[in-house]
Amino acid sequence: MYAPEPRAIVRTILLLAGAGISGLLLVNTWETEEKESKPELSLAYYLDKAELIGTGPDGKILYQVWTKRAAQSQGDESINLDEVRLIYGPPEGLPWELAANKGNIPADASTIELRGNVIAVSGNTEKDTTTIRTDALSINPATRQATTRQKVVIEYNGREINATGMAADFEANRLD
Question: What is the pTM of this model?
Answer without folding.
Answer: 0.69
